[in-house]
Amino acid sequence: MKKIFSLIIASLLFTATAWAQDRLPAAGDYSIGFNAAPALNYIGNLFSDGNSVEMDWQRENTLVGTYMKSDDLAYRAGIGIGMASSKPNDTSTISASNISLMAGMMKLRRGNRIMGYYGAEAGLGISSDKTEVGSTKTEESGTEIMARGFVGAQYFIWPKVSIGAEYGLGLMLGSTKMGDAKSSHTIIGNDNAGGQIVLSVYF
């Protein structure tokens, strides 16, 4: 009986040790991530009067993927596509579309259950809007170029499944065109001031 009990304890310890070792991602792993805050809000709303749900990617309308080049270096890229159309009345139509691309790299610092990181990335965004009211058409287009540095951390709640947050500081240059009128803008500042809870899954 003692031998059986000892074997069970040894098996549990071995399983726990292996599980802990496989908790963090390793070189060659990929991941996808999205903003989990709306999902958590939805779960919370199940116990209140409201139960609406709104899902966003890690960045608005953007799917982000990561490739682990090594245990302490990773590359990441994202693509976002958004389209919307509405018809307020029989004579009006409003449509909008946008696409964004980004790419960057990050250095990793590994712990037992937590993985900190920092890095830099650049991105490009293109948008267009069109409004038709009767026979009158108005079109507007925009382009934005972004570069930012960021720092964040991921806490692994299960093997290769983490929740985390990220903050960044960057520069954005943009231009818009409506008919013959053109304008430009420059933005420097931090992002994610409202906070995000990012869920990442590695495979």
Overall, the morphology is elongated
* Physical arrangement of strands within the biggest beta sheet: 1-3-4-5-6-7-8-10
* Count of extended strands: 10
Beginning-to-end CA distance, first to last residue? 40 Å
Write down the domain tally: 1
Tally of helical segments: 2
| Strand fraction | over 45%
Please explain how this structure is put together.
With 203 residues, the protein is mainly beta. The protein has one domain (2-202): Porin. It has helices at residues 2-21, 37-45; strands spanning 30-35, 56-57, 62-70, 73-89, 92-110, 114-133, 136-158, 161-178, 181-191, 198-202. It has an 8-stranded antiparallel β-barrel. It is elongated and about 65 Å long. The protein starts with a helix and ends with a strand.
Question: Briefly, what is this?
Answer:
The chain is mainly beta and 203 residues long.
Keywords:
single chain; 203 residues; mainly beta; Porin; 8-stranded antiparallel β-barrel; 2 helices; 14% helix
